Structure formats: C-alpha cells, structure tokens
Amino acid sequence: MRPDLLPGHLQAGYGNRLAPNYVTLPGILSAEECERLIARFETRGLEDGGLVGEVSAPDIRRADLVWLDADRADLWVLDRMMKLVADANRDIFDFALGGFDEALQLTRYRADALGHYDWHSDRGGNGFSRFRKLSVVVQLSQPETYEGGDLEINATGRIEAMPRTRGMAILFPSYALHRVTPVTTGTRHSLVTWVHGPNFR
Fold first, then answer.
1. What is the 3-state secondary structure (H, E, C) of 60-72?
2. Residues in a beta bridge with 88
3. Do the beta carbons of residue 163 and residue 149 sit within 8 Å?
4. Domain that holds residue 182
C-alpha cells in the first residue's frame, strides 16, 4: 500500500465484506479547486436533479446538476479523478474496472429547495448505470456553511455518516445503499463520478 494511504490518512469501513464498504481520502482537491468547481454553477447550464429514471421524483431527489465536459477547461478534474481511482482501486478495492463512461457531475443541494437524495444505489436500471462499479463523491463546500446534507452509507444494515471535510473523496462500491440527508441551512456542493466495468462475479 502507498505510504499516503496508510492509517491516519485513510479511513475505511469494511463490515463483513472482503471489499471495503467505503474509503475516505482527504486533500484530493484544494480549497481553490473546490471554489473553481462551485463557480461552474454560475457559468454552465443547470439541469434539474429531481429526475429518477427519467421521471420527476422530488420526494426522492431535489438537486441542481452541472455536467462537466471533457474539454480543456475541465480536463484537470478528470485527470485527478482517474489518478485517484487508479491508485485506490489498485491498493484497496481491486475491482475489474473499464473507465469513466459518464461525464463528471457537480451537484448542488440547497436548503431553500429542500435539497436531498433519499436512499438509493448507483448501480442498476438501464444504460451506463448497469455497469457502475465504483462511486466517488468529493466534498466541495466548507462544512460550516450548511447544516444537514450528510452523505450516509448503509452497506451492511448499519448507517454510517461520512466526513464533511472539504476536498475529501469518499469512494464506495456502486451497489452500496446511500443517501444525502435534507439540507436544512445553506448549500452543499459535491463532485460525483462513477467508474464502470464488467459485471461483478
């Protein structure tokens, strides 16, 4: 295992599974880089994140989305995520992965819009989601700027709240149940991506 992934720099929850339920990696993005990504909400077109399976489901999800293009302005983000996933998968998960088949997503949960995302799995359904194997969430907002909005993972029947540290990446198998609790004050921003591959065997 790489020295920067030794205990003290990494937190993993294993439960009773061979693969960890989640891994947290701090310092993936700097404060300046987080602000650059948050600013995309002012320069890119917003998409309604209340759709689930192409159907409006505001009781399940309320969010604003911005999709990052694989252009020069956003290429640094994709490069960072590719390196992060390659290192974490080699050293920790050991999944058979193929690549990033979907665009990177910026997500905004606002208290004034009752922002949240109820319990769900990232894997399943139709299209690319059938091949999602590893989910990555990077916290972009300063934790003191919002209340609620906790990312919680329930992979073994026990709910675990993830750290809110700015710039931290949280990686977990895409089959794991997780949610974002309602934001009650302020706004929570995150970067989300999925890594795809052949079916688990």
1. CEECEEEEECCCC
2. none
3. no
4. 3-94+108-122+143-158+169-192
Q: Are 28 and 81 in contact (CB under 8 A)?
A: no
Q: Is 52 exposed, middle or buried (0-12, 13-18, 19+ CB in 10 A)?
A: middle
The amino acid sitting at 111 is A
Q: Which residues are registered as beta bridge partners of 134?
A: 173, 195
Is residue 65, in this structure, part of any structural domain at all?
yes
Domain count of the fold of the chain: 1
Q: Is the pTM of this model over 0.70?
A: yes
Residue 58 sits in a domain whose CATH number is: 2.60.120.620
> For residues 135 and 78, is the Cβ–Cβ distance under 8 A?
no
Checking if the pLDDT of 17 tops 70, the result is: no
Strand ranges, E, within the chain:
11-13, 22-25, 47-48, 51-52, 55-56, 61-62, 64-68, 104-110, 116-120, 132-139, 146-148, 151-154, 160-161, 169-173, 177-180, 183-196
**What are 122's two structure tokens?**
């990232």
pLDDT higher than threshold 90 for residue 112: yes
| CA–CA distance, 118 with 180 (Å, rounded to integer) | 6
